[in-house]
């Protein structure tokens, strides 16, 4: 038991890392929480209504604590006409191949942080994690008053310090091995998970959650030994039966391969399996515009089973991925009877 587990009331030192865009479904979060970990719904792209529904869906399965996740609010960058034209021209050929009309941008970004945040307060999960930046004092106070633990995501000691000074309750430390988007906002930080965990745990008093490349029980023990209270595992659960991972994405994950950092799909650096788009896209718009511009392509490719056009987010450990019920995958990461000498959760 450590302070986070005691405060929130769960007993396996593993958090399901938030997996937005479908995989981190309420069903997966509920299965992890019911099995003793901290489930987490990948709710950052959800509408306020979907956030409320997700909370109800988890609670229909379990009364155990769970977390929601949002993207910290950030300024939307301006996009010039020439950049837009170049990005559209680059995607036009793929649209033709899939029988889609030419790529178009929506008039306004679709994420409304304030409305999502109100929905989070209504749901009152045990914790709210966020990535891509810091929350304001008003939001952190609202979370505290609602009894919701705040977890900020950082990719460097400098970002950890900024989150700590802002008043967050816990720090999710994301190493370079991690699948999906880099949470960093100050710079393009790429330290390894264990090195960064050690540095943040030694340098700051906040509880630390380690994320990035943690795929088996020895990885989890190493993260705890480095000073983390919890290991946050994402890729390890992408093939869970309860995950919302689409069939072509599942097939690509099962085949494995090399991962790399790309901006091709969203405009933000993210780690995933290499495919045709990561090789060919050269002029992405900044986030969130490229994400909006590639949305039709990605959803049509999912329906048509064409993984060469999909963002195949995965961490460096993807070649050690296994499929099965979430509770079984969790038990592999934290066996009920840990080997003699295994480190116990810190705190
Ligand atoms: C498919 C996928 C989606 C992700 N979506 C989010 C997200 O919406 N919000 C977030 O904070 N992190 C997101 N991440 C990052 C994870 O929460 C976590 O940092 C990462 O999975 C840890 O590394 P691992 O995949 O090697 O376990 C995502 C990662 C993946 C693989």
UniProtKB/TrEMBL annotation:
CDD domains named in the record: NPD_like
One term of GO molecular function: dioxygenase activity
Cofactors demanded by this protein: FMN
Catalytic activity: 3 propionate 3-nitronate + 3 O2 + H2O = 3 3-oxopropanoate + 2 nitrate + nitrite + H2O2 + 3 H(+)
Coiled coil: none
Single biological process term from Gene Ontology: response to toxic substance
Entry keyword Oxidoreductase: yes
Entry-linked Gene3D superfamilies: Aldolase class I (3.20.20.70)
InterPro entries reported in the protein's UniProt record: Aldolase_TIM, NMO
Keyword vocabulary terms for this entry: Detoxification, Dioxygenase, Flavoprotein, FMN, Monooxygenase, Oxidoreductase
Sequence intervals crossing the membrane: none
Family of this protein: Belongs to the nitronate monooxygenase family. NMO class I subfamily.
Protein's UniProt name: Propionate 3-nitronate monooxygenase
Naturally occurring in which organism (per UniProt): Deinococcus irradiatisoli
């Amino acid at each position: 038991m450590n302070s986070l587990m005691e405060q929130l009331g769960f007993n396996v030192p593993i958090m399901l890392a938030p997996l937005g865009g479908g995989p981190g479904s309420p069903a997966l979060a509920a299965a992890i929480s019911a099995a003793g970990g901290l489930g987490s719904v990948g709710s950052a792209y959800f509408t306020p209504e979907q956030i409320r529904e997700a909370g109800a869906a988890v609670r229909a399965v379990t009364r155990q604590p769970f977390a929601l996740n949002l993207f910290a609010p950030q300024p939307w960058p301006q996009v010039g006409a020439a950049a837009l034209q170049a990005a559209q021209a680059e995607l036009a050929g793929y649209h033709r191949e899939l029988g889609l009309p030419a790529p178009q941008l929506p008039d306004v970004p679709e994420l409304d942080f304030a409305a999502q945040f109100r929905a989070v307060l209504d749901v009152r999960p045990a914790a709210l994690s966020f990535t891509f930046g810091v929350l304001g004092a008003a939001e952190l106070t609202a979370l505290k008053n609602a009894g919701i633990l705040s977890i900020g995501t950082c990719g460097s000691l400098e970002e950890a310090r900024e989150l700590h000074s802002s008043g967050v309750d816990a720090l999710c430390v994301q190493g370079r091995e991690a699948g999906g988007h880099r949470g960093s906002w100050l710079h393009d930080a790429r330290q390894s998970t264990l090195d960064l965990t050690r540095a943040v745990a030694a340098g700051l008093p906040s509880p630390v959650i380690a994320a990035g490349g943690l795929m088996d029980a020895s990885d989890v023990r190493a993260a705890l030994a480095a000073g983390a209270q919890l290991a946050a595992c994402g890729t390890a659960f992408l093939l869970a039966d309860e995950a919302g991972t689409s069939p072509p994405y599942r097939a690509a994950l099962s085949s494995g391969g090399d991962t790399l950092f790309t901006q091709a799909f969203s405009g933000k650096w993210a780690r995933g399996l290499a495919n045709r788009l990561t090789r060919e896209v050269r002029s992405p718009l900044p986030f969130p515009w490229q994400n909006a511009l590639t949305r039709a392509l990605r959803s049509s490719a999912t329906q048509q089973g064409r993984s060469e056009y999909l963002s195949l987010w995965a961490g460096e450990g993807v070649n050690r991925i296994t499929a099965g019920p979430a509770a079984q995958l969790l038990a592999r990461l934290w066996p009920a009877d840990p080997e003699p000498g295994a480190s116990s959760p810190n705190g």
